[in-house]
Structure formats: C-alpha cells, structure tokens
Amino acid sequence: MDKTKKVREKIRMLRLQKEYTQENIGDFLGIGQVAYYKLESGKTQLKVETLIKLANILEVTPSYLLEGVS
What we know:
It comes from Polaribacter batillariae. Helix content is 67%, strand content 0%.
C-alpha cells in the first residue's frame, strides 16, 4: 500500500465516524464534492495545507493522520 493511500484511508474513516459527507468536507474546504472525492480517492494530490485543514475539520492533529507513514 502506498504511503498516501494510508493517509487517505484514515481521512475517510474519520469522516465517516463523524458522519460527514464528502459534500460537507468539501464545503468546509471551500471546494465541491467532486473535487473532494478526487482528493480522498487519490486522483488529486493531497497538499500539506489541505492535510492541515482536514486535520482541523476532523479534530485530529496532522501528525495523527501521518502516523505510521514513513
């Protein structure tokens, strides 16, 4: 499994635990649902700034999202 896939899976699991839809997260990020889907699925590269924003939205630290990825 590639490193970014692990991060994307954590983000997806946290999103589902918080009962957020892709549209909800897209709204928080100021992007559309399709653009968010592309981030979560790996079709678009996840930038550091976006990772930090997602960590804040999901109420975890960026280091938690990156934990186990090296």
